[in-house]
Amino acid sequence: MYEWNEMVQLMVDWIEANITESSSLLKMSEQLGYSPYYCSRQFNQLTGTTLRDYVWTRRISRAALELRDTDQRVLDIALKYGFSSQEAFTRAFNKAFQLTPAAYQKAPRPIKLAIRQEVFSPYHYLIKERDKMSKVHLQPAEIKVEFIPAHKFIGIWDLSAANFGEFWERGHSCDEICGTLESMSNHTLPGQLGQTAGWFYQNGQKGYLYGIPVSLEYEGPIPEGMECREIPESEYLVFFHPPFDYLKDNGDVMSTVEEVAWNFDPTGMGYEWDEGIKQDYQRHYPEGYGYAVLRPVKKA
Description:
Layout: H1 3-17, H2 25-32, H3 36-47, H4 51-69, H5 74-80, H6 86-97, H7 101-106, H8 122-125, E1 142-148, E2 151-158, H9 164-169, H10 174-182, E3 196-202, E4 205-215, E5 227-231, E6 234-241, H11 246-263, E7 271-273, E8 280-285, E9 290-299
Antiparallel strand pairs: 1-6, 2-4, 2-5, 3-4, 3-8, 6-9, 7-9, 8-9
């Protein structure tokens, strides 16, 4: 049922792996086993953009990260990402971000990077099929304690959303928000995983949040439409499942972890819940980290 979602995701993977090369639609289609026309049509249908435009925006965004994180010359980065000259790169960069590469390298600021497309996602497509020929072996949710120091959180808090899907259905632009936060990834709080979702509490009501944790000392710009809040230090109970097969096991893993997280009694560990001005965090990096729900606690 989702054959082409999976195939387009393979196209995205191929583009990311060959982003600095003179890749061609013909070469990619030959490796995937479909005609160039069919690949191009299906990519556009599922992503809403053409392959050519997607490659262009991803190249300019990846180049921006190198400008931010390295001291390479603008010309070298331009040539690496397939631009014929520094002038051509400057025109493209200015068109995408309304500033020059040299100005951005000198003083990085939040910009709206083009994010990697995800078209084969249980969040977006509510995939519930399972491989009926093999059993899914889930591990029980692990429970551990993690200390997170006082920090700032930059993002969006939405009281009308209860989960990831509802958050994006409320009119928030996933591409713009995630792209902007990606441009700030160099400010991520040490020890954390970057863009983070979760839950917060306000006047007895529970809402959903999305953003990035940064150090308490961060005094840089706050992207338009976002807020910056200080979050006190705290110990967290972490309900965790290690890396898993995203496409097969995502729903089961999330249910397993959340069933324990929302029904656990911390008094047996000498704690009590400490939600209020603090917030719950959700980490979802299936292939490399796994899935976790973090709830703040204090000594009982």
